[in-house]
Amino acid sequence: MKQPNYRRHRFPPEIIQLAVWLYFRFPLSFRDVEDLLAERGIDTSYETVRRWSLKFGLVFAAKLRRARPTPGTCWHLDEVFVLINGKRMYLWRAVDSEGEVLDILVQARRNRKAALKLMRKLLKKQGYSPDAVVTDKLPSYSAALGNLGMKAKHVTVWRSNNRAENSHLPVRLRERRMQHFKSAGSAQRFLSTHAAVYNTFNVQRPLISRKTLRKFRGDAMATWQSAAAII
């Protein structure tokens, strides 16, 4: 697996890791991160933060994904439209029953072919077939699952897919903060990294005690530091 390469950078790895973590962990712009670093006495530009995010974000995300436990066997799929450079595109998303983001795919269509592409990518990436696939009543899902011989696993009960629909909220927040994505490629890169960071730090706060929250938060930060470390 590709490792972070901090050579030839003026700033030490700890500062680069902090900048990338701030950008993907919180709904901040590059200029916001620049200001937060400046408050700590670190004088760098928002353009430098952008380059760090592009160079290191996907590397960190790949290592974070490898550290995640096996997700649940019930997959929830949903799609929403996003405006990218003035053009309507569709953001296809798959999560498990706990809200773990399994994959995100930016596509131009909302048809059977697009749904089939998402399912094939999921099956290849996860390495197993789910017990159930929960979706809304969009016919594209039924057609795609029929092609894969998985129609018996398809669930479309009313409100059963709230888990996937709610998982779009963090992305909608970032989309507004970024004043829309600039291209399909940049959206795919950002969302892939954002999903890995989100999964790591999504500790279900309302459901746990403060003591447990501190432990989970510490574990999440340790996982992040391991992913960003030089091996």
TrEMBL record:
<dbReference type="InterPro" id="IPR047930">
    <property type="entry name" value="Transpos_IS6"/>
</dbReference>
<keyword id="KW-0233">DNA recombination</keyword>
<keyword id="KW-0238">DNA-binding</keyword>
<feature type="domain" description="DDE">
    <location>
        <begin position="74"/>
        <end position="201"/>
    </location>
</feature>
<dbReference type="GO" id="GO:0003677">
    <property type="term" value="F:DNA binding"/>
</dbReference>
<keyword id="KW-0815">Transposition</keyword>
<dbReference type="InterPro" id="IPR052183">
    <property type="entry name" value="IS_Transposase"/>
</dbReference>
<protein>
    <submittedName>
        <fullName>Transposase</fullName>
    </submittedName>
</protein>
<dbReference type="GO" id="GO:0032196">
    <property type="term" value="P:transposition"/>
</dbReference>
<dbReference type="InterPro" id="IPR032874">
    <property type="entry name" value="DDE_dom"/>
</dbReference>
<dbReference type="GO" id="GO:0006310">
    <property type="term" value="P:DNA recombination"/>
</dbReference>
<dbReference type="Pfam" id="PF13610">
    <property type="entry name" value="DDE_Tnp_IS240"/>
</dbReference>
